[in-house]
Design brief:
Layout lengths: L4 H22 L6 E5 L2 E4 H17 L4 E4 L3 E3 L5 E9 L1 H6 L5 E8 L2 E9 L4 E6 L4 E3 L2 E2 L12 E4 L9 H12 L4 E3 L4 H9 L5 E4 L4 H13 L3 E3 L7 H4 L2 E4 L1 H13 L6
Parallel strand pairs: 3-5, 11-12, 11-13
Antiparallel strand pairs: 1-2, 3-4, 5-6, 6-7, 7-8, 8-9, 9-10, 13-15, 14-15
Helix pairs in contact: 1-2, 5-6
């Protein structure tokens, strides 16, 4: 498996920042924590890990734009842009739950062309780039083949930052939970999408995610043979943050449930 120079830079940045994230996780009791909004926290670890990622990316490609969760936008109208989430799953991280990830994506003319999701605790790195397939620790990954909802394990995320969306979301949850084999809510959308790409989840849905939560997952799922859209089946998930990701058969089933539960209106 040969990575492009772009992906080599991204994986190097993820590994180096991942070492910092592991160390900060082990010493999380010393971190400064700020509540950005309702149920939306940022710690000094998020900032330090993001700075580490940006340092290595900018060193290799100083002219590229950057959209990072904690650092805002730099060089907005550049053809190439990095999209960065330094710690996706901050609540897990702060609580001592070892399930979080660093996420880095590269876009060209607003299309995602490469992505990396790295879980530093498990030392699992998921990588993909356009036309080259998707991998976990250098092993090729593909979406599952499950075509029956009763056999499916699904991932999801609750709309914890906007409780007004809980009622419509719960309709979709009840609709799917009563028919599938199981639903998991693990707390990191980046890893949820990587798990869809690896066939560990048969599908995933969540509302109102941010671009840095999902950008790397977009290409992971696509290059693993899956589909990813918003709730009405359009490719506007990076804009509206509504995500349905699954293997092709399960994707159609999930979209039907989005429509039947009324979630496609949001």
């Amino acid at each position: 498996m040969n990575h492009s120079p772009f992906l080599n830079v991204m994986t190097n940045a993820a590994y180096r920042a991942g070492r910092k994230a592991r160390n900060l996780f082990e010493n999380r009791h010393r971190l400064e924590i700020i509540e950005k909004g309702p149920n939306d926290f940022v710690s000094s670890a998020d900032v330090e890990v993001e700075q580490e990622i940006i340092y290595h990316l900018k060193k290799a490609h100083p002219t590229f734009g950057i959209k990072a969760e904690e650092g805002g936008n730099y060089g907005k109208d550049k053809p190439h842009n990095w999209i960065i989430d330094p710690i996706d799953g901050t609540s897990n991280f702060l609580q001592g739950i070892p399930h979080f990830a660093l996420s880095v994506a590269l876009t060209y003319e607003e299309e995602v062309i490469a992505g990396v999701v790295y879980n530093p605790i498990m030392d699992e790195i998921f990588t993909a780039e356009r036309g080259r397939g998707a991998f976990c620790n250098k092993h090729r990954i593909r979406v599952s083949q499950t075509g029956l909802l009763k056999e499916a394990i699904l991932g999801t995320g609750f709309p914890h930052r906007n409780k007004k969306l809980l009622s419509p979301y719960m309709k979709s949850f009840e609709s799917l939970f009563t028919e599938c084999r199981g639903v998991r809510r693990a707390g990191s959308a980046a890893l949820d999408l990587a798990y869809v790409a690896a066939g560990r989840f048969d599908g995933f849905w969540e509302m109102r995610l941010s671009p840095w939560d999902i950008a790397a997952g977009v290409i992971l799922v696509h290059e693993a043979g899956g589909y990813m859209t918003d709730f009405i089946g359009e490719k506007k998930h990076m804009q509206n943050g509504n995500v349905v990701a699954a293997n092709p058969k399960m994707h159609r089933i999930l979209l039907d449930h989005m429509r039947d539960s009324g979630l496609d209106q949001y």
